[in-house]
Design goal:
This protein has a domain of 59 residues: 2-Layer Sandwich (Signal recognition particle alu RNA binding heterodimer, srp9/1), CATH 3.30.720.210. Helices cover 48% and strands 13% of the residues. The chain has 5 helices and 4 strands; from the N terminus they run αβββαβααα. Strand 2 and strand 3 form a beta hairpin. The termini are far apart. Strands 3-2-1-4 form a 4-stranded mixed beta sheet, covered by helices on one side. By secondary structure, the protein is α+β, with helices and mostly antiparallel strands.
Length: 165
């Protein structure tokens, strides 16, 4: 019966000693520098190595004729998706905004060209001099306009303000 002891149950010194005495049957090296050892007595030992130690330990296994294998990384697809999700959302939002702005910009001139708005000034009033010939107030206002156009300085000196239109 094989027993699995907790991680770090074997020291590095014990590993080297067991390799020299033939106490290790097989070793598996995992990507996180963890070493799983099948011992001669049927037990399974685990040892956490430093990443820089992996190459020298594998050389020792080969020198002592012990079967050693590298276990490939299984890959964590969910972790990769979760890590890249914010970036993908940001790129998607940016692409959406660019497409939307381009669509809005391309529609703008067409919308202006299609609108055929008619400017309506209302009913046109046709007033002639004959219509106001009898009104003294209209005559007085017309005289003031003519006088202002002939002598604007006289009106401006008394504080009158000229219209801008």
């Amino acid at each position: 019966m094989r027993t699995i002891r907790p991680t770090m149950s074997l020291s590095y010194t014990d590993l080297v000693t067991s390799l020299g005495s033939g106490g290790i049957v097989r070793g598996d090296v995992y990507p996180n520098a963890q070493l799983k050892l099948d011992m001669l007595d049927g037990s399974v030992e685990q040892l956490q190595l430093f990443p820089t130690q992996v190459a020298s330990v594998m050389d020792r296994f080969v020198d002592n004729g012990v079967d050693v294998s590298l276990v490939p990384s299984t890959g964590n697809l969910i972790g990769l998706v979760l890590q890249s999700l914010p970036t993908l959302l940001l790129v998607g939002l940016l692409a959406f905004m660019v497409v939307r702005q381009t669509a809005m910009a391309s529609m703008m001139p067409n919308r202006m060209l299609r609108d055929e708005t008619v400017l309506s000034l209302g009913e046109r009033v046709n007033t002639t001099f004959a219509d106001v010939a009898g009104l003294t107030s209209a005559k007085e206002e017309l005289r003031e306009v003519v006088d202002y156009l002939q002598n604007p300085d006289r009106f401006l000196s008394s504080g009158a303000k000229a219209h801008q239109n």
